[in-house]
What does this fold into?
Amino acid sequence: MSTRTTHVSTKSTQTIQTHQQDGEIGFLFNPANRTATLHPIQVTRVVDGDTVDAVVKWEPFQISIGPIRCRLHALNCPETRTRDKDEKRRGIAAKEYMTEVCERESSHLVAEFLKKGKYGRYIINLYVRKGDTLVSINQMLIDDGHAVLKVY
It folds into this structure.
């Protein structure tokens, strides 16, 4: 595993470090202990109920990265690309639900980036920021019957 450190300078002459390992966007994680951090995101496409493409906003330096593919953590939605007509119907309903939530809450979405998954997608918890409170979209999908809890 190779590690590359990049220094990024801003107009205010502050210098920050990002760490890149195996193609990861290092600032999404705390490089000291690899813990998750919250970042505002803009969902650009809902792929299906549990996968989105998003642009990550790195607020301290007004930088946007992406779009990157993100998979919601610890849940599974029905597939939209399947021959099973009932599963496809439920998958389309989950995708429409996710699309509606992301459009309605577009300016309040934040993501907790946990890790990079085996298919190259970032595993995230997606939240709506309501003042000082975070409402889990992951949990909303489960509570409203569009997903089941599944830890990979």
